[in-house]
């Protein structure tokens, strides 16, 4: 096995001088170059560093490493397509203070309002409703940025869920995914070959992973929705290209948005970029309308030659959220948890999402991190 250095040769991750203390376990396992500047530095990175030991002992099983010795794979007989595995037990459902308004499904798990509105044309929002959407989307971006700042090797996706949950309720908002159609968590965390809807659990993020964090919240009666894919430490060139291509394809589609544009044309901007970079566009999941309802019309496919109906009009709000897989296979396999969707060949997948408002002159990116419009 190659080098597993935690403290670098010139200075360690904590800024200390060059190290001379070798990890004894790494030495026994034949892992070279694993040095630390001090016992304190070793302890500070202990959980993340133990992943290296696990990988050496059980190649291919490090994907299933958690912080609890009682962690387990709940679906041992399922034929997983890649290396990621679920790691249970899930933590108890997180509570939301009683004073925070919540959507209709928060208790029952059934989005009755959505089901009643199914098949209706896209709504045109009033100026007052648009302002409420601006606030909900701004808060969603804030929470996503907070979660992203904690992405590192050694943290579990369940810990990311706790961070998102706490940041959401601190803003007097409700995490939109919590109990939506019985989804058990406050955020979706999709690692490596997981396309979307990954359930946060006990799995520790590892150096070289990529992870999508999908944040949505409900504030003052309206939902905001945004996601992005992040590297965990240093990632390989294919993963870098995948992330870069996915973001580029989303940006290209946003540039088409304006009054009179056709929803079906968005895929014409996304798919050529994906194919030119060796990626396939997932077809089973789409962008969607969003406002008082979490998911509603319009339905927005991300691939070319789709048959989406409808024209963009001033006052419409919807998401575009392309999911791209490395390679040529766009299909997916679902885990027995009825949520997690993965690539069929185990290759990596990435996604980016923004919530958009059609204005009189073009489009406003309500969830933009910096520039609010293009």
Description:
- By secondary structure, the chain is α+β, with helices and mostly antiparallel strands.
- Helix content is 26%, strand content 18%.
- It has nine helices and 17 strands.
- The strands form six sheets. Strands 3, 4, 6 and 7 form a four-stranded antiparallel beta sheet that branches.
- A hairpin with a 6-residue loop joins strand 9 and strand 10.
- Helix 6 packs antiparallel against helix 7.
- The protein is globular and about 65 Å long.
Overall pLDDT confidence: 89
Structural class: alpha+beta
Q: What is the tally of helical segments?
A: 9
Please give the largest β-sheet: 4 strands, antiparallel
Shape estimate? globular
Question: What proportion strand?
Answer: 15-25%
